[in-house]
Design goal:
By secondary structure, the chain is mostly beta strands. It has 3 domains: 37 residues, no CATH class; 195 residues, Immunoglobulin-like (Sandwich), CATH 2.60.40; 48 residues, no CATH class. The protein contains 1 helix and 22 strands. The strands form 7 sheets. Strands 11-13-8-15-16 form a 5-stranded antiparallel β-sheet, with no helix packed on it.
Length: 310
């Protein structure tokens, strides 16, 4: 992979082949800039940065759990309608319990002993980018987003590292990523992703990102299961801990189309505010069976008059 000459200019910015970029990899010389709300480089002439976030659907799903070593956490990154149409991007992480020092492997198999039961990992079909700069492990270097914006939605697994693993902290064995796409799940029955040095803590703090998955909103599989190993803080507790079948529940958010005035959530009809967010003004129905979510009325301006389209 050849990127050409890289140098630092007097403003402290990088330049690649004469194109000035900032610390996030945004091509300033082409008009791009970093948007923290969207976690992406955007063209401000095309995309608004300060998109209001629907906190009801976008808040990370996490609570203390009864697991012995780690608890799952799920964050939806695109429920403000800024993401890839027809898809939802999920960021998965685990929060360590007090007695846990680090994570050094996620795996499918027998956990290191032939006498242990086989435990597979469940990774659903997901959107994957084919071509240069894409990656199956360790995330994506943000500077590559300006070459291919779809890389923001690439699916990958990791252990704490999200920048493309520029320091080669991770490795993988026994996992065939080549068929992992929107139609085929990732089969991990005898393989692992692991930290090259199991004694190293690749992140500061007690939260490890373990993957990003961009799933079709029509995907029938709505959960992920990982098997995770790591090191104890107290060596007297054993060589390592092992958390099997850690389950992440992936809920598809209410994605309200632009210009929708009334949104049907499968049971109740709700008004939509000017930012495209669901308000508290909804019908008060109790439904035993949910119907398909859809917009009941679109806002269209024609000759100064608001009309509806069903």
């Amino acid at each position: 992979m050849k990127l050409g000459s890289i140098f630092v200019n007097i403003l402290g910015l990088l330049a690649i082949n004469g194109q000035v970029i900032d610390e996030h990899g945004c091509l300033l010389s082409k008009g791009y800039g970093w948007c923290d709300e969207l976690k992406a480089c955007i063209n401000p002439d095309i995309t608004e940065c300060d998109v209001p976030i629907n906190t009801v659907n976008c808040s990370p799903v996490y609570s203390e759990c009864d697991n012995e070593y780690v608890c799952p956490k799920v964050e939806i990154l695109d429920c403000d309608n800024s993401g890839k149409a027809g898809y939802t991007r999920y960021r998965l992480s685990v929060v360590l319990k007090d007695n846990v020092d680090n994570i050094f492997a996620i795996y499918g198999g027998r956990g290191g002993s032939d006498t242990e039961p086989l435990v597979e990992m469940i990774i659903p079909p997901a959107y994957n980018v084919n071509g240069p700069y894409s990656s199956d492990i360790g995330g994506i270097n943000p500077m590559f987003y300006t070459y291919n914006e779809d890389l923001m939605y690439d699916s990958w697994l990791t252990i704490g590292v999200t920048d493309g693993d520029r320091h080669n902290l991770l490795s993988t064995i026994g996992i065939d990523y080549s068929n992992w796409d929107v139609e085929h799940e990732l089969d991990i029955s005898n393989g692992a992703l692991f930290v090259m040095d199991p004694l190293v803590n690749v992140v500061d703090g007690n939260e490890y990102i373990v993957g990003q998955l961009t799933l079709s909103d029509e995907t029938p599989i709505n959960h992920v299961e990982l098997n995770i190993q790591g090191k104890f803080k107290d060596n007297s507790m054993g060589n390592h801990w092992d958390q099997k079948r850690l389950r992440f529940t992936l809920e598809t958010p209410n994605k309200v189309p632009k210009n929708c005035m009334i949104w049907f959530d499968g049971c109740n009809s709700c008004l939509i505010d000017r930012h495209g967010l669901i308000t508290d003004e909804c019908s008060d129905l109790t439904c035993n069976v949910l119907s398909n979510k859809r917009c009941l009325r679109f806002k269209t301006v024609l000759m100064g008059e608001v009309i509806s389209d069903h």
